[in-house]
Amino acid sequence: MAGKKQFDMSTALDAAMIQFWRAGYADTSVDDLSRATGLNRSSIYSSLGDKDTLFLRCLDRYAARYGGKYDAALSCAASKPLTAVRAFFDVTLERIADPELPDGCLIAQSVMSIPELSQSVAAHAKEALGFQRKRLRAALKAGRLTDQDVEAFAEHVAAVNQSLAVMSRAGASPAQLLAIVGVTIDALSQTLRTRTPPTNSSSSRTSG
Hints:
Elements: H1 9-23, H2 30-37, H3 41-48, H4 51-73, H5 81-97, H6 106-112, H7 119-142, H8 147-169, H9 174-195, H10 200-207
């Protein structure tokens, strides 16, 4: 049919996302994106946008794809907070272990490249990173940690999760990454044993 686009938008966006993920924003040119997607420069600009616009679309695509997996992992946090946090880390470890995917994390790379990004792209990258802390805060609060511990562990787990991606890119082994996760899980386990506040039902019995 005349005028029908001869490419699949989803496939093209995935290819662009992988290119940005593998090489980083600054080291990815429009020519690189053309080779990755199979589209000429004109088609990229007309269908996918300029480099900044396409990068933002890829960042959103990445955040939605893995954000959904993180949300699913943390869904049992109210009753099984340790299991939820382990599952959260497993999402990252499984992504790292997938030979079809680049090392590292697109969001972590983007935040580390903020000096090279435009103001709008940098703000978007920071916002994407912030979403991870927000979902961890919500999950840990549901797991009945104190407000102080919720804040501390949300920041800590998010930081460790990002460091796994960075360390994997630097050549850390799966065993080393698991050991790092283990330290965090042990610390959370200890905190849950010693500082979890009473449930409402317990408080009611005590006050009654």
